């Protein structure tokens, strides 16, 4: 078997809302492909990809875990699959973000009972932003209240997707036992614990299902010229022709193939594995990535013989040491290679190269373009760094991490644990770019910043369990921002020091105006070269440094600063002088014009029994929230709205007591809004 053939590789993620069944599905995919011989369960705490103690205790996925499998559909040769099981909770969105950044395709999992949920929308948007081709799997078809048709409608309505059902489920809820395959014209029957029975269509089945197959043909033909031509010419469209057309249209992002099953009962797993090979891209099917070099932009097709280019997208710490996960886009990486790094001028050496299977590692000698592997032993690695050949250093586009919004104060129970706490926090911050550690300048206390309460809870728990540090948690702190209240023109920043030794002289004039978005924009409006270019760059640096802390002590956003005039001195002007003059000018402008305080506002979704909706809505109103939508369905309600983060601290505990423990919620950052007066 030639595993080096790129066309037989599939790098894919499993993405979904929390509790849609991602980890259970990944477990079944591994079992069916023969990679594991015993199926682990999330509820038993022994799933292959949820291997950390916290994941097993809480029954949720926290870190994206990589696993390998092989699958050969029909008469095709084996294909190598690299699967990444991603978290469903919004607080760990960075795990999904960086996984989608390096993967070629994804399987979006939806619960047949709950349909498209809030976090489903978030991960779907993430995948679409990275232009990752998707297939959808409607899971939990055997549960009470399951509806395949409802999920298809929600895919259209809520996600603006174009779903193509590749089959028709047979039976409903506990009676779900089969799948009419519209592509291969066959019927699959599933019995609990037994292999599927496959029956090709006879005349009766064809008469029953041909109309659905024709509808699928027509839907795909609208987005594939080759199929449309064959359809219009009246040619017989066999399974191979239809499969090729669905693949082309899926790779182009025109539609989403949809399958159904019940992962827990082993139903629909083989058809999904076939679909992964049939419809998701190989590295060759994805657009070539571009990288920056000293000579300009370089386009990198996935060629093992090309220049080395890999993105270090994730760091974990296991019993073996630090594992740096790398996606290779071009070239070949071998044990013993010395490589250039975009973060370390001296570069790095590859001492051990491994293929990762959840928490197990297997040594390999080399990796080629299209591979996802890990390097063992890089203690100071940084998420987002580019690895390239020393002869041709390259820089790939970095991974964008959302700024954290909530902070906790941490204090070790014993002063002797201070160093160990610092080491543990540094290790956790290295793993997770959305987790930040800083020291309060006024009180010298340690602050940890994260995406929400669950995120910080997990980090503190890991500090206690992995680093054996007993820490106390202080009052939360929210990440506020400032924005200018009005425009200011002709603001002067002037630095004159001409006594004794080398003088300092700089004179700048700035115009300042608010912006609608949260960007910080600097414009060079100098005419006639009155300020040299190097000094203009120094002014910009000074302005941006000063904007990190506004008059009220928070970062300033939503501002446009224009350098309109200035003066220099032939001897005494320097970059440092203009840096300081720029900083003084912007500080003066903000002090005079004033700033408005902005606070993070969360989009909140509460799932509650209908009887508790009144209490839930009343509680959100008391927290200065505003309700956007209430969807009531069969005794359960979904309340969607927005509320300031500062008012949501401890919300999950409060919600449980409001609903006798029957309600749950999730929240993600909606944006920043002016602080409302109490």
UniProtKB/TrEMBL annotation:
Record keywords, A-Z: Elongation factor, GTP-binding, Nucleotide-binding, Protein biosynthesis
Cited SUPFAM superfamilies: EF-G C-terminal domain-like, P-loop containing nucleoside triphosphate hydrolases, Ribosomal protein S5 domain 2-like, Translation proteins
Gene Ontology molecular function, alphabetical: GTP binding; GTPase activity; guanosine tetraphosphate binding; translation elongation factor activity
Domain Tr-type G intervals: 7-284
Keyword GTP-binding applies: yes
GO BP terms: ribosome disassembly
PROSITE patterns: G_TR_1, G_TR_2
Family membership noted in the UniProt record: Belongs to the TRAFAC class translation factor GTPase superfamily. Classic translation factor GTPase family. EF-G/EF-2 subfamily.
Function: Catalyzes the GTP-dependent ribosomal translocation step during translation elongation. During this step, the ribosome changes from the pre-translocational (PRE) to the post-translocational (POST) state as the newly formed A-site-bound peptidyl-tRNA and P-site-bound deacylated tRNA move to the P and E sites, respectively. Catalyzes the coordinated movement of the two tRNA molecules, the mRNA and conformational changes in the ribosome.
Protein name: Elongation factor G
Gene name linked to the record: fusA
């Amino acid at each position: 078997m030639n595993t080096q053939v790129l066309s037989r590789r599939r790098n894919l993620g499993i993405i979904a809302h929390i509790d849609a069944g991602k980890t259970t599905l990944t477990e079944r995919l591994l079992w069916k492909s023969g990679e594991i011989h015993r199926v682990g369960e999330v509820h038993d705490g022994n799933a292959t990809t949820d291997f950390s103690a916290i994941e097993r205790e809480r029954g949720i996925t926290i870190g994206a875990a990589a696993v390998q499998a092989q699958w050969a559909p029909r008469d095709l040769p084996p294909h190598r699959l690299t699967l990444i099981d991603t978290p469903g909770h919004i607080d760990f969105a960075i795990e999904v973000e960086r996984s989608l950044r390096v993967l070629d395709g994804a399987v979006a999992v939806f619960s047949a009972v709950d349909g498209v949920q809030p976090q489903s929308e978030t991960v779907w948007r993430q995948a679409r932003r990275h232009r990752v081709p998707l297939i959808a799997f409607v899971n939990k078809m055997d549960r009470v209240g399951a509806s395949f048709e409802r999920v298809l409608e929600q895919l259209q309505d809520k996600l603006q997707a174009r779903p193509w059902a590749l089959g028709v489920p047979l039976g409903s809820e506990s009676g779900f036992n089969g799948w009419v395959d519209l592509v291969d014209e066959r019927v699959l029957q599933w019995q609990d614990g037994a292999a599927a029975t496959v029956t090709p269509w006879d005349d009766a089945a064809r008469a029953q299902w041909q109309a659905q197959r024709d509808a699928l043909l027509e839907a795909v033909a609208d987005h594939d010229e080759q199929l449309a031509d064959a359809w219009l010419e009246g040619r017989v469209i066999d399974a191979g022709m239809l499969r090729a057309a669905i693949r082309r249209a899926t790779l182009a992002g025109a539609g989403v193939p949809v399958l159904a099953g019940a992962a827990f009962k082993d139903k629909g797993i083989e058809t999904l594995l076939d679909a992964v090979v049939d419809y998701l891209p190989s590295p060759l099917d994805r657009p070539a990535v571009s990288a920056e070099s000293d000579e300009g932009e370089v386009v990198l097709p996935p060629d093992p013989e090309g220049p080395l280019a890999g993105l270090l997208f994730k760091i974990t710490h296991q019993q073996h040491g630090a594992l740096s996960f790398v996606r290779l886009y071009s070239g070949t990486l071998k044990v013993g290679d010395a490589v250039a790094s975009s973060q370390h001028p001296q570069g790095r050496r590859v001492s051990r190269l491994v293929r990762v299977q959840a928490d197990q590692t297997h040594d390999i000698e080399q990796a080629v373009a299209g591979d996802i592997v890990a390097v063992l032993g890089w203690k100071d690695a940084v998420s987002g760094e580019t690895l390239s050949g020393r002869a041709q250093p390259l820089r790939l586009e970095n991974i964008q991490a959302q700024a954290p919004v909530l902070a906790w104060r941490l204090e070790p129970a014993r002063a002797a644990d201070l160093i160990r706490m610092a080491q543990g926090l540094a290790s956790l911050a290295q793993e997770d770019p959305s987790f930040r550690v800083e020291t309060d300048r006024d009180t010298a206390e340690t602050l940890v910043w994260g995406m929400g309460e669950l995120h910080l809870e997990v980090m503190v728990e890991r500090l206690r369990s992995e680093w054996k540090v007993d820490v106390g948690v202080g009052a939360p702190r929210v990440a506020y921002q400032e924005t200018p209240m009005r425009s200011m023109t002709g603001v002067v920043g002037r630095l004159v020091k001409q006594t004794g030794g080398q003088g300092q002289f700089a004179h700048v004039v700035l115009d300042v105006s608010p912006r609608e978005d949260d960007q910080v924009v600097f414009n060079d409006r100098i005419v006639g070269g009155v300020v040299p270019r190097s000094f203009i760059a120094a002014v910009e640096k000074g302005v941006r440094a000063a904007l990190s802390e506004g008059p009220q002590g928070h970062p300033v956003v939503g501002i446009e600063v224009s350098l309109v005039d200035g003066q220099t001195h032939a001897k005494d002007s320097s970059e440092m002088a203009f840096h300081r003059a720029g900083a003084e000018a912007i500080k003066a402008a903000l002090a005079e014009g004033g700033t408005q305080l902005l606070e993070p506002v969360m989009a909140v979704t509460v799932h509650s029994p209908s009887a508790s909706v009144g209490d839930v809505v009343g509680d959100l109103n008391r927290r200065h929230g505003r309700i956007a939508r209430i969807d009531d369905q069969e005794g359960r309600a979904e309340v969607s709205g927005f509320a300031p983060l500062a008012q949501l601290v401890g919300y999950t505990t409060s919600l449980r007591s409001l609903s006798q423990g029957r309600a749950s919620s999730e929240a993600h950052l909606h944006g920043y809004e002016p602080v409302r007066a109490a």
